[in-house]
Amino acid sequence: MTHVLSLDRLSLHLQLNSGHPFNFEYIRLNYAFKGNSYRISPQVVIRKLATSQERNYQHSFTVWVENVNIGTLSTDHTLPTATVPVKFEFENAVFYQKPGFVYYLDTLAAAGLVETPGNPSYFEIPLDIQLRKPLLPRLSHMERHSTLDEHNPRPKFRPLRKKSHCSKLDNGSMYAFGRGVHKADGTGKQVVVYNKTNANKAQEKPYIDVYHVANGLAPHIDTERVEAKVTARWLAANNIQITARDLANPEVLKTLFLRAVGDVFRFIECKPKKKPKRNAQGNYPQPITDLLPLSWLQASPVTLPTKPRTATTTAEISDNRKRTTHKVLVTQYVAAGTPETAATLLQFEAITTPPQGYTWPQLRHRYALNFDGAPTPENSTRITQINALLHQHLTSMVNLRG
Question: Which domain holds residue 53?
Fold first, then answer.
């Protein structure tokens, strides 16, 4: 199977270097205001939003680093007992594109905005997988024939952990194990399973498709996501101490993911057809069905595609600029043939409409044939097969990764 383990969401509690309460009054008095922004440093500006984006916070600001929106800062907590008055949450795209969230975290620290990398208050670790036998249909079958269905009069299976709570959402297209992470009766941890390919289309997140491409997932096969949602409450209950920077370490992500998932996908036969043999302790162990054994999970560094330096709306790009940019990207792919150049080309085509009167396959073919210089055999293959290059390139990556 092909898979990639990532970080998808991260909220932090921050502290100001000076030790003063970092609230709207402090921002107004200490940072220059120009246009619609407060300049924190030459690289960092914040822009106040009309309304707060976070419950229990009076003010919210978008945070921009080098003209990139990297997250939302919320200040002025409304509860007088609050021990951490400042909250920051990264924008989703920073986890899927260069330079990555650690770069922005360091930039905020260099600007004097934070004292430490910050303690995670909430984060999500998704495992995106393409299995030979998809997980969701097998999970649906198990749900119908187990005690997860409270109305099943004759269940054949039950979760290994008897108190496991499962919710079926969106007409069975999503399963959530554990109660909501912020609910008082929950543990502060939840595991969710759903079809990520469909979610990307609905949420309009083409950069995640590009990220999948760069990390070996095939675009013509649906990707399923197993997502561990974790709060500081669950970390404290399990005596786990980490910083935001630790979440950039693949080994840490793997360890946390496995710990959070636990036995969620393991089920026991209620009444096995054959009585099991006694084990060494003299007990009769019940047969266990594991829907997602994770012994194959690897802690591999991810590839972050480069965000194309183009406008994100086609109205901002002239047809001439579209052709020029597209020709550069096609030429780069023909020359190098790397996952990153393929991913960058894919993203540009995903967010940009073709010039009037053309399609992207037509232009790919034209620009590939115009490749300068004496091509190597590898270049020649990419030139002659340009309209199938993404499919062939990605299929080869999937085969290499098994």
Answer: 8-122
Do 45 and 142 belong to one domain?
no
Helices (H), 174-298: 196-203, 206-214, 232-237, 250-261
Dist. CA 180–CA 169, nearest whole Å: 13
**Same domain, residue pair 19 and 130:** no
Name the pLDDT band for 325 (thresholds 50, 70, 90): confident
Question: In whole angstroms, what separates CA 263 from the centre of its chain?
Answer: 23
Question: Does 275 lie in the same domain as 129?
Answer: yes
> Among 64, 65, 10, which Cα is nearest to 245's?
10
- pLDDT at residue 278, as a whole number: 63
How far apart are alpha carbons 21 and 370 in whole angstroms?
60
Query: Of 126, 140, 136, which Cα lies nearest the Cα of 194?
Result: 136
pLDDT exceeds cutoff 80 at 180: yes
Rounded to an integer, what distance in angstroms lies between the CA atom of residue 199 and that of residue 224? 10
Same domain, 166 and 283: yes
